[in-house]
Amino acid sequence: MSPPSQETLLLFVAVLLALWLLTRSEQRRATVPHRRMPMTEDELGRVLFEIGRAEDLDAFRHLYLSGADARRVLGWQAASYLGNRNKEWLQDEFLEISVRIGSSSHYEALRVDPRGRAFLRVRTEAAGSYEIPVGVALRVGRIWRLRDPVGDWSPHRRVGATPTAPPA
Fold this sequence. Notes:
It is built from 6 helices and 4 strands. The chain has helices at about 5-30, 40-55, 55-60, 65-75, 80-85, 85-100; strands at about 105-110, 115-125, 130-140, 145-150. The model has no long low-confidence stretch (mean pLDDT about 85).
């Protein structure tokens, strides 16, 4: 049997590279997180609570308007909206929410006021029932999304803190 020609070896290498590229892209697609699609206010609240307890920043990011949803809701302002969202504010926002949820809390409800501001109500034994602001929520078609972050947390700095006894 004669050794394979250079053309045959090059063809074999090309086929191996093509197979490697195909399997590599399939692996990348498998790691993309599933984007949750809450259909009710309560489902949005449960998803936010679960994400906060799990400290899953990527899942939190997926609850915000993106791409086609932003264009549908904001029209020509969508590009500006999407351009102003950087990773730092998202991390800060998520940290504020997840710290206030804590590990010992229980989900109660999500309340959306007439202006769209959403508040997650949780309960702990130490602090009782309290509301955590989570941003501005809105319906996009049949699903709920977050549009704007809370941003200024200073009025909410004691939310979820254990009450202290008044001085004697």
